[in-house]
Amino acid sequence: MRRQKIFHKYHFLSFVISVQAYLYSTYINSTAAKLGFSFTQIGLVNLILSIAYAMASVTLGHVGTRYGYKRTISFLAVYLFIVSMFGLFANNPEGLVIFAVLQGIFFGAFFPQVEGLIAKSESLLRIDPPSITGRFTLSWSTGNIIGVAFGPFLTVRAPGVIFVLGLIISGMTSLLVSLDYQKFGDTITFTPYRKLLEHSQNASVVTNKNAMRKLRLEYRIILFLGGLIYTSVLASFPKLMMLAGLKLENAGFLTVGANIGVLLTFVILQSWKGWVGNEYFCGILLSVVPMTGIIAFFAKNPLMFFLTALFAGFTYAVPYTFAIFYGLLSEEEEHGKQGALHEMVIGLLFGVGPLVGGMLFDKLGGNLGLLVYALSISVVIYLIQLLFNFAVQQQNQAK
C-alpha cells in the first residue's frame, strides 16, 4: 500500500525555488542600499524587475498549458542556470539592473507553471479546493522566510554563495523534472492524505461560477493594493534600517517578519475556512492594512521594525489567499492562464509598491511615509469592497 501524503515533490520544488527567488531579490535590494541608491532609485529597480516579471507571466506563464508544465519548467531551469552565472558579476549599478530583469523573467514564467500543474493534478484527485491553494502557498511562503532572512547576510559576507546555490538548484531542477516527465507524464502522481479529500461546507461557493468570477476580480485588485505595503517593506527596509544605525547584514533577520506574517496567515486561513465566500469576515481580516501603518509610525527599535514587517506580511497574505483561491479554481481547464494572470498582478505590485513607497519615504521619512501609504490604501480597499458588494446586491434585486 502506498504511503499517503500531505505534500509532494512539487511543493518541495516550489519551496526551493522560493528560497532562491528571495535570495536574489534581497541581494538586489541590499546591494542597491550598499551602493548608495536612494529609496526612489531602489523603487525604480524594483519597478523594472516587476515589469519583466509581469510580462513573462502573461506571455510565458501559460505556455505549460499547451506544451506541458513539466517540460516548460525543465527548460526554464536551464535559463535560470545561465542567469545565475551572470549574477556572479552583477556587483555594479548597471549589472544589478540587468540581473534584476533577467531573474525577474524566470520567476515570472516559472510560478504560473507550478501553480497550474498543482491545480490541474490535485483537482483531478478531487482534493478540497482550499487545501489545493493553501498547501501551495505554505510551500513557497516557507521558502521565502529562509531567502529573506539570509539574503542580506550572505550579500555582505559571501555573495558568491547565493549564485552557487542558484547554479545547483537550477541544474538539479532541470534534470529531475525532465526525468519525472518521462516517467509520469504531465501530472503529479501521489496518494493524498484522506483529510485532503474532505470538502469543507463553505467550499461549495466554487460551484457558483458567476460569484467566483466576481470575487476573483475583486480580490485581485485588493491583492494589488494590499501588497503594495508588503513590497515596500521588503524593498526599503534594508536601507531604512541602515539609516536607523542597524547593520545591513542583520537587516534580513528583521525584515523576515514580513514573511513570517505571510506564513502565519496561510496556516490560519488554511485551518479555518470560514472566509470562503464570506465578505464580512474578509473585510475584518483586511483591517491589518491600516494597522500596519499605525505600528510603522512608532518603529524606532528592532522589535518595532520586526512588528511592522510582520503586519506588512499580513497585508499581503490575507488578500493573496482570497485571490489565488478564487483565481485558480474559478475556471476549469484554465489553470495555467489563471496562474499567469495571478502572477502578473504579483509582479506589478512588486514594482509599483517599492517605487511609490520609496518616493513617500524620501519625501516624508520612512515612518510617516509608511503610515500615510497604509492609511490611503486602506480607504481605497474598503471602497472597492463596498462597491463590489453593492453591485452584487443590485444584481440579486434585479432577478
TrEMBL record:
InterPro entries: MFS, MFS_dom, MFS_trans_sf, MFS_Transporters. Residues 6-399 form the Major facilitator superfamily (MFS) profile domain. It comes from Fervidobacterium pennivorans. The chain crosses the membrane at residues 12-30, 42-61, 73-90, 96-114, 135-154, 160-179, 219-238, 250-269, 281-299, 305-329, 341-361, 373-392. The keyword ATP-binding does not apply. It comes from the Bacteria. It is a multi-pass membrane protein. This is MFS transporter. GO terms for molecular function: transmembrane transporter activity. It is found in: Cell membrane. One of its GO terms (cellular component) is plasma membrane. The keyword Transmembrane helix applies. It holds the Pfam family MFS_1. Keywords: Cell membrane, Membrane, Transmembrane, Transmembrane helix, Transport.
